[in-house]
Amino acid sequence: MIIYIHGFASCGFGSKAQKFKEYFEEEIITISLPTIPNLAIDTLEQIIEFSLNKDENVYLIGSSLGGFYSLYLANKYDLKAVLINPAVNPWNTLHRYEGVEFVTNYYDNSRFEFTQSHINSLKNYKVEDLKNPQNFITLLQEEDEVLDFNEAAIKLKDTELIVEEGGSHSFDGIERYFRKINSFFYN
């Protein structure tokens, strides 16, 4: 089973999630996670543990904040993961929402509260020691307008690191990597 983990203020029905769903079909789940980090991690841990207890293989694909969550979970459970323009220090990048009463979801325009305590709670999931860097592919595009790709390139230098010129935070042309991801997970 592949779990696609979306980014901040996104959902499991976004355009990138749907591209993965079209390619991987029933092999992938693209759920919409709670906006509160502790609840999002708890939800993902329950799905992972349920699947592992049934002797199923679990693979993760995470984008942006979902990449941060994927890094933590793959390291904790020794899973393979693909990280797409991952946030590596989300408490820094999400600081711009400090003092904002409500954040708007990019997909459905729903609004939610994201507090300083939510931002601080992300530090609980920081990975200091990457146990098996060979379990990761990191895909970065230099023109990411949200995150500095250099932070992820430095933090994840021991993973299979692919850095492309140009692009965007959404990772333009992600479908070019679907076969590589499929091979990485299943070979």
UniProtKB/TrEMBL annotation:
Tree of life domain: Bacteria
InterPro entries, per database record: AB_hydrolase_fold, UPF0227/Esterase_YqiA
Gene3D superfamilies, sorted: alpha/beta hydrolase (3.40.50.1820)
Protein name: Esterase
Lineage per the UniProt record: Bacteria, Pseudomonadati, Campylobacterota, Epsilonproteobacteria, Campylobacterales
